[in-house]
């Protein structure tokens, strides 16, 4: 590829010189033909004189030609770059710019028209025209020297240029001609033929070129007027000459192009619409964006997390209601048919009281919301729906699904987060130049966009300041250790306090003479801890002086640890309750069985009938057990509901009332309420996230015992979304240092996973070990809840499945499977570790390459300055003796003592030849440093062209 | 009315089609939009290439531009006189460059011109400051502005001359994810 580029650039050079010679643009075609012929002859002569060892070999010469011209080509290319950089943006001024640059532009003239960046193409026409008159310092000089020179020397290079025309085949042809002419030492006949052929080829080329111009004229950053003019010219040209060449497809091509454009446009539009549609399908996207634009991505990350939770809970809700609750309501026995579905007689008086219902007793307790309501019939309804099995499966499936989703999301986020690191290359630049959305056509959206751009700049500034912070590392470390020590102390202290209080409450449980405080000691201590500790942690965290994002993570982790104590006490109390209930139940069960036995005994004795019919008793009068599952479920529901109440009230009082007071009392207060003390609240990210996480833990634990809990949770999350969005937008102020959330919410997810695991344990424990209540729930009458699976396997599946399952449950099979999994985990882990290492390695390399490139550019630039100065001196210097020849001359017959005007050009030749090798090395890999000793180095500019050419040697355009 | 204008603009439209990324229909639509900005100024008949310019006040009040912080710059860059007064050609040019069909190089080139407030062919610090203040409505403190500008130059300036050349700018912007996505609104109008 570099090679090809070289050729292309070189051709440009050739044409440019051509243009120089021929003063006018289009009318010059015949003359060009002449030139070309002359060139061919010149080349032939030059070569004839050349007599170098390999000169017979055509290919070898070909190679050499390229190498010869490469430096010039590069110069052209460099000029081109320079021009583009400096003047390219202003075409109108272009006309008046230094001829030097014009030359650079002109060089591009014949570049392959397809490249859209060849914007100067037309400039070159103008430039070329003027160059002849005005006489660009450089180009002009070249010209003159060439003209003055006796044919061979200067034209040799040109001829070769000519020979190597843009068109590949044309070039080949030309080459052949050159070769033949070199053999036969220039015949006039040959020359004539080449002229006409060349002319046609040239014409064809020109037409093609104009056509590409027509096709690409849209891509040129010109004024419309210029575009139209050029278009007209080009079209006229094409129309004029196309017929001569026997080609006429312009109109169809244009129509085809129009069709293509239309289709592409439609496709793009469809894509955009689809994208919009997809965005519109994501709920609350606009709400969250609005919050994000004012409060930063960290606050938005909470809402995104909330939305994610809502989605997950919606699925859980679908499972629970679709497979358990709705079937039970539709197909199960109606309320009042059996004891478990009836409110007991003693409670019927108060069953509809508001306070009772609010405690989820009364009708609530004996409703479909709780475990106890479900019947233990194996199948219900016409569809023979296996409700108990479904119940168990949904209970387990809830956990399975949650685990899967959490882990999958974490993995996906990790993927996204992976690309997070090296994005920093152009953070600010991209923000600055690409953040405005030009499609915004509405003032409100624009306001939001302004806010979000400002916020995101602030976020990045905070990050940047954090990077720049140079600090006393020892002091910082000491402070961090100190802070952690203090926090561990307070965590340990509160842990012990909880333990102590729970222990004491167990003691109190046996006594009756308790004061109010003693009764509620655990709750009071817990809420006090929850009230005091988080601010305390936050204060201590000030010592650490972490970046706010990292500080948030620490804060989350610490409060999480504190709240685990909460969870622990709660579970502890719960298991106590369950155990007492179990004992109580055992007694009742025995009693009722005994009563039943009595009844049946009496019944059969009286009726003399062994057929057992249930006692004629109203279902509400039947003696029943405490049904610990429902009790647990009620406990969880109550907890969730009170949590909702507390959260919402906190927002209402702590944020809204505060904001109202601060806002309106500020008019008549002695100090500035808004600025000084109470001020407005900030959005408490850590508290809210943890609230959400622990709430979800409650749901997971409670959903098995209270299917209705899932519904409550879904409603809570839904209302929470709107309520909190409203609250944050109208009562809170952004954080002092708005910081960017880590792209992946994986820390939140990690906490969620931990909670999921912690809540999985008690539920699985109860399912596997505790006996279900004998008279309520879908598993009543079984020794263990999971017996329902055994039953299904035994009764519903073919016999071999049973044996299959028993094999699968064999420890001999399970242990190797576990072993295999552990090994697989180990293997995958080490593989990922290796990948990570190589990734880091690559990143480092990329960084190094970037730095290097930057450095190189710097060097080039400074060298450039030197070279520019030298260039200015060149007219005088061209007469100076040539610099040391770095390589043996490939052309021995070049005599250093020639006529003076010719010297410059000859030297140029020397230099170009001498520098053949560096170019052959490949234009890409040329280091900038060792330019000094090169032929064009400061030691003595080899010739008018070569010196600057080398000096300008930037890395070639990619 | 429609037929007449169709007929009159036919030739023009043909060549305009080649010069923009629009189909004939879209060019006509844009022409009507242009005309609707000032029906009393713009004639229906464009065969004679009347020399009509709409003042910036009218151009800047279009829904596409009116909320854009860079509207003045956009109008200036695309207008012939550099003051934001646009002829129909300029108008079409603007929409063409900002259409979704325009290649990124072209967009980048014009983006560079838009951000180059003082027209010196380099985005220097003062240009960056202006851009930033427009983007954030002067909400950042001076220190922050200075820091951001330094960072931008530090990131994107490859030849260390303390300002961004077109080359630097293109090198930086064609890698921007926002710039790569078709659906993003960066430098994009719809008609």
Order of helices and strands of chain B: HHHHHHHHHHHH
User: What is the structural class of chain A?
Assistant: mainly alpha
* Largest interface, chains and sizes: A-B, 70 and 78 residues
Number of strands of chain A: 2
Unreliable sequence segments of chain B: 1-8
Q: Give the rounded overall mean pLDDT of chain B.
A: 78
The total domain count of chain B is 2
Q: Into which percentage range does the β-strand content of chain B fall? A: under 5%
What form of chain A results from the Cα inertia axes? globular
Radius of gyration of chain B: 18 Å
By DSSP (H or I, 4+ residues per run), the number of helices of chain B equals: 12
Distance between the termini of chain A: 10 Å
List keywords for this structure.
heterodimer; A: 958 residues; mainly alpha; two-stranded parallel ribbon; 31 helices; 2 strands; 71% helix; disordered N terminus; disordered C terminus; B: 191 residues; Recoverin, domain 1; elongated
Describe this structure in words.
The complex is a heterodimer of chains A (958) and B (191). With 958 residues, chain A is mainly α. Chain A contains 31 helices and 2 strands. Chain B is built from 12 helices and no strands. The N terminus of chain B is likely disordered. With 191 residues, chain B is an all-alpha fold. At the A-B interface, helix 3, helix 11, helix 12, helix 16 and helix 17 of A face helix 2, helix 5, helix 7, helix 8 and helix 9 of B. Chain B: GO terms for molecular function: calcium ion binding; magnesium ion binding.
Give a quick summary of the entry:
The complex is a heterodimer of chains A (958) and B (191). Chain A has 958 residues and is mainly alpha-helical.
Topology at a glance:
The complex is a heterodimer of chains A (958) and B (191).
Chain A: H1 2-21, H2 29-50, H3 58-86, H4 91-94, H5 99-107, H6 121-134, H7 137-148, H8 152-163, H9 168-184, H10 188-216, H11 224-245, H12 250-281, H13 285-331, H14 354-358, H15 387-418, H16 427-434, H17 443-468, H18 473-509, H19 516-519, H20 521-544, H21 548-607, H22 628-665, E1 681-682, H23 685-702, H24 708-731, E2 732-733, H25 746-769, H26 787-795, H27 799-808, H28 811-877, H29 900-914, H30 916-920, H31 946-951
Parallel strand pairs in A: 1-2
Chain B: H1 2-8, H2 10-19, H3 24-37, H4 56-59, H5 63-66, H6 71-78, H7 88-97, H8 104-115, H9 125-136, H10 142-156, H11 166-173, H12 177-180
Pfam families (chain B): EF-hand_7
Domain EF-hand (chain B): 103-138, 144-179
GO molecular function (chain B): calcium ion binding; magnesium ion binding
């Amino acid at each position: 590829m570099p090679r090809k580029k070289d050729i292309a650039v070189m051709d440009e050079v050739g044409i440019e010189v051509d243009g120089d010679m021929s003063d006018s643009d289009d009318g010059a075609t015949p003359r060009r033909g002449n030139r070309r012929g002359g060139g061919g002859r010149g080349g032939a002569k030059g070569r004839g004189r050349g007599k170098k060892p390999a000169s017979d070999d055509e290919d070898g010469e070909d190679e050499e030609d390229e190498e010869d011209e490469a430096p010039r080509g590069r110069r052209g290319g460099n000029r081109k770059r320079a021009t583009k950089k400096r003047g390219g943006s202003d075409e109108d001024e272009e006309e008046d710019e230094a001829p030097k640059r014009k030359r650079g532009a002109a060089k591009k003239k014949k570049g392959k028209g397809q490249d859209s960046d060849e914007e100067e193409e037309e400039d070159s026409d103008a430039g070329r025209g003027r160059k002849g008159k005005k006489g660009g310092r450089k180009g002009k000089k070249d010209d003159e020297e060439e003209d003055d020179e006796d044919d061979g020397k200067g034209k040799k290079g040109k001829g070769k240029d000519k020979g190597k025309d843009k068109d590949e085949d044309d070039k080949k042809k030309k080459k052949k001609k050159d070769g033949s002419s070199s053999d036969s030492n220039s015949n006039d006949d040959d020359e004539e033929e080449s002229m006409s052929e060349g002319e046609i080829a040239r014409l064809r080329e020109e037409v093609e070129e104009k056509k590409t111009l027509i096709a690409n004229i849209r891509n040129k950053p010109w004024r419309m007027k210029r575009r139209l003019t050029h278009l007209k010219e080009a079209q006229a040209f094409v129309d004029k000459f196309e017929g001569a060449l026997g080609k006429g497809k312009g109109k169809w091509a244009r129509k085809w192009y129009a069709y293509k454009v239309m289709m592409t446009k439609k496709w793009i539009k469809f894509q955009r619409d689809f994208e919009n549609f997809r965005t519109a399908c994501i709920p609350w996207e606009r709400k969250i964006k609005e919050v994000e634009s004012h409060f930063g991505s960290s606050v938005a990350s909470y809402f995104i997390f909330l939305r994610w939770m809502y989605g997950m809970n919606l699925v859980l809700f679908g499972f629970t209601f679709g497979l358990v609750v709705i079937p039970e309501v539709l197909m199960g026995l109606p309320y009042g048919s059996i004891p478990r579905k009836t409110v007991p007689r003693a409670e019927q008086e108060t069953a509809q009281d508001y306070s009772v219902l609010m405690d989820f007793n009364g009708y609530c307790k004996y409703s479909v919301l709780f475990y106890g309501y479900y019947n233990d019939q194996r199948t219900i309804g016409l569809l023979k729906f296996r409700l108990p099995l479904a119940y168990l499966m949904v209970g387990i499936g809830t956990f399975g699904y949650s685990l899967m989703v959490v882990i999958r999301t974490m993995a996906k986020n990790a993927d996204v987060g992976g690309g997070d690191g090296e994005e920093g290359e152009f953070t600010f630049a991209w923000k600055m130049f690409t953040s405005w959305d030009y499609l915004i056509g509405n003032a409100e959206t624009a306001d939001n966009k302004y806010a979000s751009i400002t916020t995101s700049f602030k976020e990045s500034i905070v990050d940047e300041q954090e990077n720049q912070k140079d600090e006393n590392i020892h002091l910082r470390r000491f402070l961090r250790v100190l802070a952690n020590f203090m926090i561990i102390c307070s965590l340990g202290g509160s842990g012990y306090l909880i333990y102590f209080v729970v222990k004491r409450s167990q003691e109190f449980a046996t006594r009756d003479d308790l004061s109010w405080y003693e009764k509620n000691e655990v709750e009071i201590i817990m809420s006090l801890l929850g009230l005091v500790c988080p601010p305390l942690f936050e204060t201590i965290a000030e010592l650490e002086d972490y970046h706010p994002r990292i500080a948030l993570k620490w804060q989350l982790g610490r409060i999480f640890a504190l709240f685990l104590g909460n969870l622990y006490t709660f579970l502890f109390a719960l298991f106590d309750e369950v155990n007492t209930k179990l004992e109580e139940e055992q007694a009742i069960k025995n009693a009722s069985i005994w009563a039943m036995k009595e009844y049946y005994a009496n019944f059969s004795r009286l009726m003399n009938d062994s057929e057992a019919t249930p006692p004629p008793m109203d279902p509400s009068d039947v003696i029943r057990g405490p049904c610990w599952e429902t009790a647990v479920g009620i406990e969880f529901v109550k907890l969730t509901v009170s949590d909702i109440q507390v959260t919402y009230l906190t927002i209402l009082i702590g944020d809204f009332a505060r904001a109202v007071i601060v806002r309106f009392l500020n008019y008549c207060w002695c100090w500035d309420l808004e600025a000084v003390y109470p001020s407005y609240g900030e959005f408490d990210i850590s508290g809210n996230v943890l609230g959400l996480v622990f709430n979800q833990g409650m749901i997971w634990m409670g959903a098995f015992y209270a299917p209705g809990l899932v519904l409550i949770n879904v409603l809570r999350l839904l209302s929470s979304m709107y309520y909190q969005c409203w609250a944050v937008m109208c009562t809170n102020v952004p954080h002092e240092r708005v910081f960017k959330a880590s792209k992946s919410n994986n820390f939140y997810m990690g906490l969620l996973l931990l909670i999921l695991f912690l809540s999985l344990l008690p539920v699985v424990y109860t399912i596997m070990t505790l006996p279900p209540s004998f008279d309520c729930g879908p598993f009543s009458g079984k020794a263990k809840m999971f017996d329902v699976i055994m039953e299904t396997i035994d009764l519903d599946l073919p016999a071999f499945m049973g044996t299959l399952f028993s094999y699968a449950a064999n420890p001999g099979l399970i242990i190797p499977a576990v072993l295999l999994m552990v090994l697989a985990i180990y293997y995958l882990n080490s593989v990922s570790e290796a990948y990570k290492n190589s990734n880091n390695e690559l990143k480092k390399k990329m960084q190094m390459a970037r730095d290097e490139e930057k450095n190189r550019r710097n060097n080039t630039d400074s060298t450039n300055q030197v070279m520019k100065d030298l260039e200015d001196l060149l007219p005088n210097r061209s007469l100076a003796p040539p610099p040391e020849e770095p390589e043996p001359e490939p052309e021995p017959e070049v005599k250093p003592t020639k006529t003076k005007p010719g010297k410059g050009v000859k030297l140029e030749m020397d230099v170009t030849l001498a520098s053949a090798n560096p170019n052959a090395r490949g234009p890409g890999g040329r280091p900038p440093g060792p330019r000094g000793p090169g032929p064009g180095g400061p030691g003595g500019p080899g010739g008018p062209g070569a010196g600057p050419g080398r000096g300008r040697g930037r890395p070639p355009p990619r | 009315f429609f037929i007449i204008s169709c007929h009159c603009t036919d030739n023009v439209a043909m060549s305009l089609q080649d010069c923009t990324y629009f189909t004939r229909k879209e060019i006509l639509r844009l022409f009507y939009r242009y005309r609707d900005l000032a029906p009393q100024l713009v004639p229906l008949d464009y065969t004679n290439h009347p020399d009509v310019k709409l003042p910036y006040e009218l151009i800047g009040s279009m829904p596409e531009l009116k909320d854009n912080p860079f509207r003045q710059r956009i109008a200036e860059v695309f207008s012939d006189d550099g003051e934001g007064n646009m002829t129909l050609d300029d108008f079409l040019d603007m929409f063409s460059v900002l259409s979704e069909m325009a290649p990124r190089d072209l967009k980048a080139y014009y983006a560079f011109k838009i951000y180059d407030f003082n027209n010196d062919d380099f985005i220097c610090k003062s240009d960056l400051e202006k851009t930033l203040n427009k983007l954030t409505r002067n909400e950042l403190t001076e220190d922050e502005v200075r820091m951001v500008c330094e960072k931008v130059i530090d990131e994107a300036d490859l030849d260390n001359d303390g300002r961004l050349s077109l080359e630097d700018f293109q090198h930086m912007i064609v890698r921007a994810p926002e710039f790569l996505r078709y659906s993003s609104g960066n430098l994009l109008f719809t008609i």
